[in-house]
Amino acid sequence: MFRLRYRPHVVATLSLGLPLIGSHLARMAIGVSDTVMIGWYGVEELAALVIATSFLIILFFLGMGFGTGVMGLIATSIARGDETEVRRGARMALWLSGIFSLLVMPLMWFSEPILLALGQTPRISELAQDYLRIAGWGLLPMLGGLTLNSYLAALERTQVVMWVTLAGLPLNVAMNWVFIFGNLGAPELGVQGAALASLSVQVSQLAMLVLYASWLPMARKYNLFQRFWRPDWPAFRAIFWLGLPIGVTMLAEGGLFVASNVMMGWIGTRELAAHGIAIQIASITFMAHLGLSNAATVRIGQAKGRGDAQWMRDAAVTVTAMSLGFAVFAVVLYLVFPEPLVRMYLDPADPQTPAIVAIGTMLLFYAALFQLTDALQVVALGLLRGVHDTRVPMWIAGFSYWVVGMPIAWGLAFPLGLGARGLWLGLVAGLSVAAVLLLIRFWRGWRRGDWTPQPVPV
C-alpha cells in the first residue's frame, strides 16, 4: 500500500523535476565553463571572476523573486481553471523583472569603488568591474528567462526549459575560447571575453523561450504577449508583494555565501580561488535540490488549487525524501573524490595549483557537512512557495543566515583564527537552522489547515 500510495508522486515529481534539474545543471555548467576557462587564463582573473559573479548573483537573487514566486501562483490558477489569472501573473512578473534589471545596472557599471570598499585589492576590483560592465546587461534576459521558465514549468513543459538551457552550453564554451584567449583572430579579452560570451548566450536563450511560449498550442489561450505593453496595476502590486519576500530570502541566503567570498578575499587570493572552486562544486549538486524544490512548488501549488490536503502531504513527503537521497550521494562524492574535483578547474602547469588544490580539498569536506541541511532548507522553501507563503520564510532566512550563520562564520574565521575552516562552519550553522525552522513552518501550517486553498488576490 505504501508503494502504491507514493509511486504516482515519485513519477510525477521526476517528470517535472528531472528536466528542471537538467536545466539548472546546464545553467551551472555555463558558469563552470567560465570559471574553468578563466582559471586556465590566470589566477588573478579567476579571483576577479569569483568576486564579479558573486556581485552579479546577489542582484540576481534579489530580482528573481518575481519570476520564482509566480510559479506557484500560476500552478494554482491552472488547477482552478482560471486563465485570466495565469496571464496577469506571468505578464506582470515579466514587467517587474525587466524594471528591476534596469534599476540595478548602475551598481554594476560603477562596481569598482564598491569592491574596494569591501576590502578587495585594486587589481581584482578593476578586473571585476570590467566583467560586470558587460555581463550586467545579461541580468534582464536572465530574469526574463527565469519568469518564462516558471510559466512553462507550471504548464509542465519543463523539457523545453532544459533543452533551451543546454543549447547555450556549447555556444558559451565556443565563445569563451574565442574571446577569452583571442582565438580565430579575435582580440584577447580575458574576463571581458567571458562576460561577452555569457551575455550572448543569455539573450539567445531568452529569444528561444519567448518564441516557444508564443507558439505552444496549449498556452495560446493565455495570450501572454497580447497587449504586453498595457499595465495591470492590481496584478503588478500583488506579484510585487508576493515576489519581494522571495527575493529578500534568496538575497539572505546568497548574501551569506557572497559575504564568505568577500571575507575569503581578506584571507588571500589563493584561498579565494580555492573557495570559489569549492562553492561552485557544491552549487552543482545543489542544482538537483533546486530542481526538486521547483517541482515541489508546482505540485504543492496544484494541490492548493484543487483543495486536496492529503495529496499535498504525500507530494511533500515524496520530494523531501528524494532530495535527501541525492544529498547522501553528494556527501559520498565529496569525501571520496575531493582532489580530482578541484584539479579540473586549474592549470596543472601553474605553480600555485598544488596550494589551491590543498585548500579546496579541505573545503569540500565542510561542503559535505551541509549537504543534508542545504537540501532540506531549499525543498522547504519550495513547499512554502507552493502555498504562496513567502513573508515568514523571509524572516526565517534572515535570522538563520545573518543572525546565526554570519556571526559564527566571522567569529570562527578571524577572532578564533580558524580562517577558511571557520567561514565554512558558519555556512553549515546558518543552513542547518534555516532547514529546521522552515520545515517546522510548513508542517505545522499543514496540520493546522493553514494551507487550505483560498482565492488568490491578483
Automatic annotation (TrEMBL):
<feature type="transmembrane region" description="Helical">
    <location>
        <begin position="131"/>
        <end position="153"/>
    </location>
</feature>
<feature type="transmembrane region" description="Helical">
    <location>
        <begin position="194"/>
        <end position="217"/>
    </location>
</feature>
<feature type="transmembrane region" description="Helical">
    <location>
        <begin position="423"/>
        <end position="443"/>
    </location>
</feature>
<dbReference type="InterPro" id="IPR050222">
    <property type="entry name" value="MATE_MdtK"/>
</dbReference>
<keyword id="KW-0472">Membrane</keyword>
<keyword id="KW-0406">Ion transport</keyword>
<dbReference type="InterPro" id="IPR048279">
    <property type="entry name" value="MdtK-like"/>
</dbReference>
<keyword id="KW-1003">Cell membrane</keyword>
<keyword id="KW-0812">Transmembrane</keyword>
<feature type="transmembrane region" description="Helical">
    <location>
        <begin position="238"/>
        <end position="260"/>
    </location>
</feature>
<feature type="transmembrane region" description="Helical">
    <location>
        <begin position="47"/>
        <end position="80"/>
    </location>
</feature>
<feature type="transmembrane region" description="Helical">
    <location>
        <begin position="315"/>
        <end position="337"/>
    </location>
</feature>
<keyword id="KW-0813">Transport</keyword>
<feature type="transmembrane region" description="Helical">
    <location>
        <begin position="160"/>
        <end position="182"/>
    </location>
</feature>
<keyword id="KW-0050">Antiport</keyword>
<dbReference type="InterPro" id="IPR002528">
    <property type="entry name" value="MATE_fam"/>
</dbReference>
<protein>
    <recommendedName>
        <fullName>Multidrug-efflux transporter</fullName>
    </recommendedName>
</protein>
<feature type="transmembrane region" description="Helical">
    <location>
        <begin position="92"/>
        <end position="111"/>
    </location>
</feature>
<feature type="transmembrane region" description="Helical">
    <location>
        <begin position="272"/>
        <end position="294"/>
    </location>
</feature>
<dbReference type="Pfam" id="PF01554">
    <property type="entry name" value="MatE"/>
</dbReference>
<feature type="transmembrane region" description="Helical">
    <location>
        <begin position="357"/>
        <end position="384"/>
    </location>
</feature>
<keyword id="KW-1133">Transmembrane helix</keyword>
<feature type="transmembrane region" description="Helical">
    <location>
        <begin position="396"/>
        <end position="417"/>
    </location>
</feature>
